[in-house]
Specification:
The chain is mainly beta. 8% of the residues lie in helices and 47% in strands. The protein has 1 helix and 17 strands. The chain has one helix at 89-104; strands at 7-8, 13-17, 34-39, 42-47, 52-56, 65-69, 72-76, 83-86, 109-113, 116-125, 131-139, 145-153, 159-165, 170-173, 186-190, 195-201, 204-206. The strands form 5 sheets. It has a 6-stranded antiparallel beta sheet, with no helix packed on it. Strands 1-2-5 form a 3-stranded antiparallel beta sheet, with helices on one face. The longest helix has 16 residues, at 89-104. The protein is elongated. It starts with 6 loop residues before the first strand and ends with a strand.
Length: 207
Amino acid sequence: MDNNVIYRLDDDISFRKCSLYEGDKTSHGDCTNHHIRQANWTDYYCCNQEGIHLHCTHDPAVEFDIEDQNGELTLVCPKCKKRVRIDSMKSVISRCQKMLNMEIFKDAKLIRLDDWYFPEVKSKIKPTQEYFVTTDVKTDKDGDTIIILYIGYQGSKDKVQFFIKPEKGQLSTDHKDLDPSKILSKIEVTLKNRILTQKYIDGESEE
């Protein structure tokens, strides 16, 4: 995660990623707007702003205060007193995330499929000499992210194919590929608001 980085959204608003941007943690770090959830008798801090905090572009080190008067939101800089009206926090955070996505997908390969173009990011990891792991990141027709994770034995064409959809909170496999139990006993995916777990025993999956 980037530390001490302020991104400029426009002439009025800048933003940063807080310590909880990648997911819930046992410490709130530099997040200034969070709540606590409990799981397995442990307190976890969750950011109320999806890990994105708004700062004043004129005074980038200063985080905006948020005023809510009868549903009308205004960002107020405590230092220079600049006031910025916004439609909603959700819309501004969405703009910030789109700017972050530009960096992620700047070198993406475009694939044409059924008259839709899908950005793709690929990486290949060799955790051991026995296995290989390959990942693809794409978007579907709804504009949601699909992370495709391939796991297999080195030198073999057979592989497990996992489909992870963060926005929809889904984890699935392709039944046409290698049975996950042949290579894994468990897979766990940590998203911003949930943990998806599948365990494999005797060719069956348990969620």
